[in-house]
User: What shape does this take?
Amino acid sequence: MKRSVAIATFGCKLNQYESQLMMESLSSDYEIRAFNQYCDIYIINSCAVTSKAAKESRNAAKAALKRNPDAMVFYTGCDVYIEERLPDNVYLIGNSYKNNIKAAIENRINDISEDTKNYPLYTKINKFRGKNRAFVKIQEGCNNHCTYCIIPRLRGHGRDKSKHLILEEIKGLINSGFEEIVLCGTDIGSYKHLKGLLREIDKSNLSARIRISSIEPMYVDRELIDIITSGNFARHLHMPLQSGSDKILRLMARNYKCRDYERIVDYASKKGIFVGTDIIVGFYGEDRSAFEETYNFVESLPLAYGHIFSYSKRDYTPAVNLKIGLERGPVVAARNRLLRELFKDKLKNRMKNFIGHTTDIVVEDTQVKINNKTFYKAIASEYFPVLVKDKVKRSVFEIKKFDGEYAYI
Assistant: This one.
């Protein structure tokens, strides 16, 4: 009888990709179960991008041991290098072991040495369990050193996957029936020949839509946008802004200015691309004036949506050494709320203007009930959710309605 194993994944698309690789390598010898089930072995693929994500990852390890005190629990992912409060009987394995998880289990490996941070880039994935859109990792690590971010310390320096292997992986996933492929990585804009890679992908005349995941604004220029809008790519870019104040951007060690960001967002929007962003509120030095700069800047931009995060201190980051004022509690929560409301209005206005236009949609397995009617959820090229009555193949439809959360065809 096969032993049972479950994997809990936290955080980014990179972790989701790596969890799929682990499941694929284990599926022939182990019974794969849901994480909330009783299992012989549990694997936690942790995240450390925020203290909240790290806490949730650690709680999952503790919950697994509560469910089965005799289980083998393996803890990996970024938080493994900084975790401090896990039971002694949890095995800690570095990111490189995700590529050979069977050996880690069978040999009961406990290793988080420095060289385990370098995840190998010669692997490719053939399946993506429970997903209609597949992720392909094109690079690993980050050479940027934003003062609030701990990831370069945990993922190591930037490294690129070979173009040949990426193209092979994409073609294999499309042959398996995937209609959208998402290119992901720690810092995908740093890929040495990103524009050349995108042109090669487009030249291959693939049947699936290709989406670029989060990319830092300093890597995006008119040429990159022109490649996206002239090829078989999703009309969507997610470019983290983090602050609309040049003073705060300097403190964050972000190597662009607001006017640089504005120019590229304006051009992308004119070319029909929906641009989303990330913003951190409450960072060191963000007084009322700096926040108002951010609010007014965001209000002026043709952004479609935004993810708002309240800053929390992260040990081992340069920011903790800044000797500057740091707002707390209700003030930061109020700023967070104001930006969320602003983005809610921006999306409504953007979608109102989009009604009557066509978009390319990929339908997922997720079902949604609205007013006692059941719909399938789809993802538009521009990255807004669309509800459809039937599970159809990738198609182009006219958007007829938007209810504030979903669009309808």
Observations:
- The longest strand covers residues 358-370.
